[in-house]
What we know:
By secondary structure, the protein is an alpha+beta fold. The chain is 19% helix and 36% strand.
Amino acid sequence: MAEVDGITLMTQRDVDVTGGQEQHFTVRRCWMHAVLPSKLIFSLHTTTPAGTDPCARGKDLLWATMSEWNREPAQGSSPDTELTVVTGADPCAVLPLLGVTTPAGDQYLWACEFVYRDVTINLSYRHQAKGARPEQQIDSIGTHPVFHDRVGDEVVYFAELGPPMANSDPSSVLGPVSPTLAVSGTDPAVVDEVLRRTLSLFPEQ
């Protein structure tokens, strides 16, 4: 494992996985992962002829990929990008209202994981199609429609934060896409409270 410019590079060779000897391989393999500070991961699997170094080839390709990534426009900077209330919103912004904190490793671009009232909460912002959430509206909080679902031991509450995106296709199988807040956890009362506190950060529709 190595770190360059804040990027952690992890490599695993075929000999490390199988414990075999290089001269016994008819092809060589290497698995590589570049982990960015944002937790974004680029993975690459290379297969090269026997007698070559698959990790050296893979490293060249991976750094070339990272170079191209760094040249990409910043998120939301394209004139074709439709901005919504969740574009650039901090999913951990509700933490001060709840009086809790969470490690940097649990803070992501679109999601935040934290413990509140002894319940592990996963909160995320997303652009979600109508057909990707429960059909039945349970209630409303202000002007925000709210939908409930259950996944195993957890409940998941969804709240629409704004109108459907203009560039979404209402005739598609899943329907139009709207900016959405999703909160999940094992205690419905705690999930409901976090949902309501987070909604207070957003203007009503």
